[in-house]
Amino acid sequence: MSIQIKTTDILIVGSGFSGCVIARELAASGHNVIIIDKRNHIGGNAYDSYDQNGLLIHNYGPHIFHTNSERIFKYLSNFTEWRPYEHRVLSVVNGEQYPFPINRDTLNQLYNLNLNEIEAAKYLERVREPREKIRTSEDVVLNSVGIDLYEKFFLNYTKKQWGVDPSQLKAGVAARIPVRTNTDDRYFTDEYQAMPLRGYSKMFESMLSHPNIELKIGVSFSDVKSTYSDHHVVYTGPIDEYFNYCFGKLPYRSLRFEHEHFTNTDKLQSVGTINYPNDYEYTRITEFKHLTGQQHSGSSTVKEYPQSDGDPYYPIPNDANEAIFKRYETLAKNENNVTFVGRLAQYRYYNMDQVVGAALSASEKLIDRFKN
Keyword Nuclease on this protein (predicted)? Predict the structure, then answer.
């Protein structure tokens, strides 16, 4: 005997990865879903569009999909075809471009050496500054590569990106960046590395293409909260905003984007992204044709300028901010008719695949709950 699922009306706040995945899963289970977004488009920060020159760009900075999860890759494959793409990054130090993350070629080029893999490992072992306890991002890097590489590649980039010294960030931020003794110059080494063939926005459109989903863009939660008071709410926005900042604002890092187009230019850069850790106010320049594979007579780029004010992009991971979040999390646990999920709602520095995983998990729990 099959279990009859009771249809539930659901309001989803935010149409990024979290909101779109949950909307699709709940709609496919027979629930009526309304998804809103205060912006005038879907996709959250992963939104992409064609600029006035006809080039597909990522409006809110580069989003490179990578995962080791076959389940997540197969799930997203229901909504998009893929273009295989392995991201590569160079970092500019003293006017020269070096492979980044640091690998054996970086060491050889920087220090005019000719190390093999074993010698590169011995070199790093010799220059590293061992830390008995790894508490901060500074500890991670010094423990791995020592002071010179730390100062050349990490210190100033981190200060620009996060607005604080690496010693004030949790270890997990720097731990995301590997150090290699081989010559692998890929930024990621995940099993699945690819870009949505027709872009992220088309993928999200496919996710939301279901008769049980109603989309409303340009709509803020505060404007419709009372209208949908009988709906279960899936909230993917900033958790502190939901509770009217009663414990104060959680610190987020924002970004300003400077998009540029260059005519009659095949490619400006040899790789997708070039980092500028020690020069300029921006952190990096990304050239989109590398990511998309698009053929075009010109090329479009984006420079990223980190800043404190503006839309929230990155939760700032340190103990003080985590303590504030825990207070909000306690309130969230008492909101029986609200599910909080996503980078901003859970104050977590998630990758895209981690967001999808969290959204699928939340969807499963909600479907089981609504059965009862």
Answer: no
Same structural domain, 204 and 346: yes
- Tell me the residue range of the domain where 116 lies: 103-175
pLDDT by residue (tens digit) across 147-202?
A: 999 999 999 999 999 999 999 999 988 888 899 999 999 999 999 999 999 999 99
At residue 161, φ and ψ (nearest 5 deg) are -65, -45
Residues 59, 121 share a domain: no
Confidence of residue 1 (pLDDT cuts 50, 70, 90): very low
